[in-house]
C-alpha cells in the first residue's frame, strides 16, 4: 500500500484492563502465550498495535478468542478509550485528525457520521424494541439528519440495498431471522453513508449458506460504494473471501501482517501456521 493513501492510521495503540505491575510486560504476550499477567491479573488486550487502512480497502483482523480484536475495533469506534497511542483519520484532501483527542460529543458525532459498526450479536447493534425504520432513524438523528421524509426514504433505499423487504419497515427486529438481522444491522450501519465500516464477527453462528449471502452482500456494497472495511473474525476462511490484506493478532499483539493470499500460502508465525492449517 502506498503510504500516502491511508484514510485511517493506528499508531502504537495500547489498552489494558487492571492495575499493572513491574512484571506485566515480561509475563504476557505471544511468546508467553497469555494476555493476563499471572502476578497482578492485568489483561493486556492491545499492545503496540499499528495498522493503516487505505481508502476503499478491506482489511481483515484474525485471531483466537481473547486476542484483542474486539478491543481494537472498539477503540477505533471511539467507544473504548486507549491507554496511549493515536488513531489518525484523514478524509479526502483534508489534514489528518487524531481521533483520540476528541471530546465525548465530538467522538459521538464522528462515530455516527463517519463510522458504521456491525456486531456478531444483533442486540448490540440494534434497539430490539424499535422498528427497522426506528433503528435507522436513530442512527440518522444522531448524525444530525432532521427531515422525517428523507429519513424514511433513506431507510427504504437501504432495505432494498441490503435485500430486505421494504414493506417490513415498521416491523421489529425479533420478527426477523438471524441472517436478516445482520442485514438490518448493515442497513443501520450504512445509514449515514459512513466512510469506514467496522465488522465484528458478523457471520459467526450463522448457517454456511446464510453466511455466504452476507459475505456476497458485503462484497457488493464494497464494490458499489468503495467503502473502507475492517473485518474482524476468528475464521481465516471468512477473511480470505473479502480482505486483500490481513493482520493476525495473538495475546494482544500483531504477530503477522501482509497480503491475505501470501499469509495463506506462506504463513511465517507458528500461530498463523496453526490458523492456516485449521482453515484448510
Ligand atoms: N472491559 C473489560 N474488562 C476486563 N477485561 C476485558 C474487558 N474487555 C476485554 N477484556 C479482555 O481483553 C482481552 C481481549 O478481549 P477482546 O474481546 O478484545 O478479544 P477478541 O479477540 O475480540 O475475542 P472474542 O472474539 O472472544 O471477543 C480478553 O482477555 C478479554 O477478557
UniProtKB/TrEMBL annotation:
* Residues of the ABC transporter domain: 8-276
| One GO MF term | ATP hydrolysis activity
Q: Does the keyword Protease apply?
A: no
Which named protein is this? ABC transporter related
| Gene3D superfamilies for the chain | P-loop containing nucleotide triphosphate hydrolases (3.40.50.300)
Q: What is the lineage of its organism?
A: Bacteria, Bacillati, Chloroflexota, Chloroflexia, Chloroflexales
A single Pfam family it belongs to is ABC_tran
The protein's UniProt keywords, in alphabetical order, are: ATP-binding, Nucleotide-binding
Which organism does this sequence originate in? Chloroflexus aurantiacus (strain ATCC 29366 / DSM 635 / J-10-fl)
GO BP, sorted A to Z: organic phosphonate catabolic process
